[in-house]
Amino acid sequence: MTTQDAKTRFVAEEKRQRGGFGLGFYARYFRSMRGLALFGPPLFFLTVVDTFFANGFRWLVALRAEGCTGQLCETRPSFEVALRRGIESLSEPRYLWMLGCWIFAGIFIRAVNWTGALGFLSNGGRALHDDMVDSLSRVRVSFFDENPTGRIVRRFSGDYSQLKHEIPNYVIDIITSVLELAWVLVLVLLQAPLAALACFPCGFFYFRIQSLYKPASRETQRLSKILETPVWSLFTESVAGYQTIRAYGRAERFTRQLDAHVRRAAYGALAQSRLTRWLNVRLKLTSELFGLSVALFICWSCASGRMGVGTAGFLMSLTIGLDVTMQWLTRTLSLIEGTMVSLERILEYRDLPHEATPAVAKGVLETAAVRDLVLENLVASYRADLPLVLKGASGTLRAGRRVGIIGKTGAGKSTLFQAFYRMLHVHSGRILYGGIDLADLDIREARRLFGIVPQEPHVFSGTLRFNLDRLGEHTDERLWDVLRRASLETFVKNLPGGLDAPVYERGANFSVGERQLLCLARAALLKAPVMLMDEPTSSVDKDTDILITESARTLFAGRTLCIIAHRLETVLSCDEVFLIDDGRVVCQGAPAEVTETFLKRFEGARVEDALS
Amino acid sequence: MPAIRKNAESEGAYEAFEEALPRLRKGVLRSVLRYEKKQFRVMFGIHMVDVHVSILSALLAVQILRTFEPSPSGFAISALLFEAPTATQKFLLAAALALTVFLLNVFAACLHAQKIEREMLLVYRIQTKLASYVQRFVFAMSRQARVRVPAGDITNLAQNDARRISEFFAHAMVDFPILFLSVAVVVILMRVMLGPAAYLGLAIVLLQIPISSAFSWLGGKLHGELMRRSDARVSLVSEWVQAARLVRYFGWGERFAADIRARSASEFRQDLKVKGQYSFAFSLSTSWSFVVCLGLFAGFLWFQGNVGASEIFAAIWLSSILGHQLNPLPWFVAILAESRVGARRLEGLFRLRTQVEEFEPLEDVARAAAQVPSQTLKALASWACSRPSSLRFGYALEGVTVKFEDAVSPLFENLSLVFPAGALTAVTGSVGAGKSVLLQLLLGDVVPTKGVVWLLVDVAPQHAYEGLFSARVPLHTPEVLEFVRGFETYVPQEAFVASASLRENVPLIYLDSSAEFEDEAAVVKSLEAASLEIDARTFPDGLATELGERGVNLSGGQKQRLSLARSVFRSQDPGVNIILLDDPLSAVDKDTERLLAWSLFDGVWNDGSRTVIWATHRLEFLDRATLVVDLDAVKRSGK
């Protein structure tokens, strides 16, 4: 992409978190989980059982401690009386065995429940991830220009990691805490109906605290994130630019600036901690008030003989961990909000617009047959709403010829390649191959007509073989044959592992020239009848440059070759040359003729300078 | 809000970087402990009280039950007060106890909240203080040391290792000792209240430590593998995204998507193992207090026969307190280990050499410095103060040898060169000839293994004081380097762009960091000189356009021109006459290069007092230079 392109088109804004998320979020979240109908109900049932376990244990203990003697017992509901009698009749060791089984069953159930639920939600996340991969592999190409690589990759790293680790944990925490609170309520209602009166004011109070805390916490979280970002970005910059910074005598300023950022970030961090303190004290107060009212009710019931000590102990122990559960719930509810934007972002990427391709391919193509490629008054832009980059380009690339393309930077030379690959939005006009309109073909089919050697020699990390033949379609003989013709045979033979030699990230273990030749070989392996090549400019020395052009000649013999030429020799070696200016083919003809027009058009420029 | 402000401004006992460095080198953890000693003392006090108040309230809760027990087996307050309490007396006593429990709990909660707030202050403060020490260290570091540490590692040290250290200090430093203390108290109480069964309970409590350690070891292993698989997936994704066009040109999209799916599936399988491990560990640790209870009940049966309801609930409560206390133990152990690793890594960084320390062993430079009379430096400083714009500078290399520690042979051997003041000297040479290193040498970032680099200072010819002052001082001493930095600008090969606005990037000064107002017109003029002004006009917010993290919104050529604009801007300051250019035109096209050469060498820097040293690999504009140094030829002849 040229710099010109970058200017006309500004990078799209990233989705940001605004305001709160309601129940709709949870609905959307669960709906997007795979297999909800199958796994949802049993997992929920397990959670209900699991949350009863701890209170159930205390209850069993209380029932045994109190037994079923006297009028106390008779006033209880009949199932409880039966339970009490049953437990009382057990011998000591048997009772302990029963408790032991209860405990270990509880541990087991909880472990299974959490594994199942976390696994289920995380699998749902994985399914979304894979959908996102599919969606992104079909999105129109200009999407990658509008969104920086870092942003796209973040969807797959940071956002996805939140989706599969944090959100499931939070969701299960929330469900578990709510159910635990519900059980406490049920048990208290069952044992001490009057104490339930205290539930309402305490519940109300809790709800109020919660609804005050959540937005405040959301804002402080956001604030502290906003305030913290400059700290780390300045830090990273200082590390990267230390040499420039100190050569300009600005080290002192940068340290002062970091201190200033840090001081500001402190407000965010401390506001958060102050808020947590506010919340903790109030939640504790609420749960203790509830505990106090239960305790007073117990005192009254016990003193008047309506309740046994066992039940009393049980009830008191119910209220003990209440504030921890409440704290946990509140904290998780506010934490999950911070992660929801990840889900939104991933859902957004799952539903990206796809590349235009006809529902039914109209044309049938004789692949491998070399035919004329005709441009008919092509008008196109990178996206429907962006300025035109091709403004009525017409011309014919004759089958099997060597066609050069020249023009100034930004004239639309490489845009033409994009048009062949159907990566542009076509407003009018068409491209015909052997008389068939490319737009009528299946997009993958149409792309198979072309092979390309881009200006930047991009190689993938992995192995050499992997770079040449990612799909594993070719035999070793064929690979070696192409490597030989690309003058790479001896070089590859000397590599450790030959064809399976490792390639580091961005091909760091190869020189630019070697990478260029690799890209040539890669393109030559395709059976495409039309080869597109963007000649390298300044990145390689003259010898390599000549080697590349020579190799291209032998490798692409018999096919149509279309070269964006930067050197005069290349231009002169072509059968025919197109001069492109301002999105149009202004001149087509023999090299000498076109070069002359070019010079006239851009008076005073030396050909080679103007081309590069 | 005022409270927050007060907290934010409380600083701890942190020292200035120069004093802190020797201490940090010896031990990061010990240094932090020293700086935050006061805070720890307060937290220790608070936590001590709050834990024991909680224990006390649990004991009183047991007393409520005992009040109603027909024949309590142990100590009972009711038995102390009344011989045969009536129902009303029982009620009143129990109600009073309940109220006391309530008040104690609220008191403990308030204290605890205080402590939590302090913890969060520490988490934030220790990390940022360490990060700011690291930043200062990076500015002081010698280049030789710095190039060996990848930038990512340094950021990682400040972000993650410092974070772990601060978490250890905030959450574990105080809780750790109190944990042992409170466990001891609870165990004693259990022994007193529950009899010998307490030992069985204690044994089961202690059993939790090896179990949870085993789980966290397993978890660490599983998690490491998960991270590995996750990295493998993300790196494939990022390669796929980077080459999005290419992948489509070649029709490899489906294969890439399939490979990514395979990796995400493999990651998920590992993730399931991690989640299973986590769930079992979690379930065990949350339910362990019930296992302890079971042990206590078995103990009662074994030792005492039947016990009352109040003992049973005392057992439940005390064991849950114990469990609660012990739950974070594995985390404490892990964070202690992690923060020690982090501290060692930070110490490793701090022990690297600083630039000034790199000068110390240079014998030739020391000898040369000894020859320079002390008045020269003083005179230099006073000239620089009173008449900065009258000075101009040159360099002379005298028998300089540069050999890097890990290199087999020296890069330069016995090299003697002069860069005359007020001249444009071009440095050419093949790749690897050492053009960059030569500039680094003049910047002071590379030191001569042998020989001396002299800084030549005299008065510019068109100035009234011409001929009145000249000096020759060795460059590689702390004082001279400090001095010369006030007069030089440097354009590196890879442009540095701060993630600020264009307006801030040119002067390299953040708008909010100082009250000084930088002249907008001067910024525009510098942009013009560097041919960036036309580009800047198309930016959405003009000069105020944010350039994004490290200039993501700029093309390579634009970054280079920004870097040049910065140099032009800086060179407008009085006396800034040294301009070091490390092949800055490599990323711009030829037209722009011509334009730049014209506007810089023939324009703003063409006033006779500038010393421009320009390393370049292109030979097109060498006619602009007063002097051309071909490094290959110079190295061959030694001159």
Give a verbal description of the structure:
The complex is a heterodimer of chains A (612) and B (639). Chain A has 612 residues and is an alpha/beta fold. Chain A is built from 23 helices and 12 strands. Chain A has a 6-stranded mixed β-sheet with strand order 6-9-10-3-11-12, sandwiched between helices. In chain A, strands 2-1-4-5 form a 4-stranded antiparallel β-sheet, with helices on one face. In chain A, helix 3 packs parallel to helix 8 and helix 11 packs across helix 13. Chain A starts with a helix and ends with a helix. Chain B is α/β, with parallel strands linked by helices. In chain B, the strands form 2 sheets. Chain B has a 5-stranded parallel β-sheet with strand order 6-7-8-3-9, sandwiched between helices. In chain B, strands 2-1-4-5 form a 4-stranded antiparallel β-sheet. Chain B is elongated and about 115 Å long. The mean pLDDT of chain B is 82. Classes of the chains: A alpha/beta (612), B alpha/beta (639). At the A-B interface, helix 1, helix 3, helix 6, helix 8 and helix 9 of A face helix 1, helix 4, helix 6, helix 8 and helix 10 of B.
Topology:
The complex is a heterodimer of chains A (612) and B (639).
Chain A: H1 3-8, H2 23-31, H3 36-66, H4 71-74, H5 78-88, H6 92-138, H7 143-146, H8 149-191, H9 196-240, H10 242-247, H11 251-303, H12 309-320, H13 322-350, E1 373-381, E2 388-397, E3 402-406, H14 413-420, E4 425-433, E5 436-437, H15 443-447, E6 450-453, E7 462-463, H16 464-468, H17 476-485, H18 489-493, E8 502-503, H19 512-525, E9 530-534, H20 542-555, E10 560-564, H21 568-573, E11 576-581, E12 584-589, H22 591-601, H23 607-611
Parallel strand pairs in A: 3-10, 3-11, 6-9, 9-10
Antiparallel strand pairs in A: 1-2, 1-4, 4-5, 7-8, 11-12
Chain B: H1 2-9, H2 17-26, H3 28-35, H4 37-68, H5 77-81, H6 87-140, H7 143-148, H8 151-172, H9 175-194, H10 197-242, H11 244-249, H12 253-304, H13 309-326, H14 329-350, H15 355-359, H16 363-371, H17 374-386, E1 391-402, E2 412-419, E3 424-428, H18 435-443, E4 450-459, E5 470-474, H19 478-484, E6 488-491, H20 502-505, H21 520-529, H22 533-538, H23 556-570, E7 578-582, H24 590-604, E8 611-615, E9 627-630, H25 631-637
Parallel strand pairs in B: 3-8, 3-9, 6-7, 7-8
Antiparallel strand pairs in B: 1-2, 1-4, 4-5
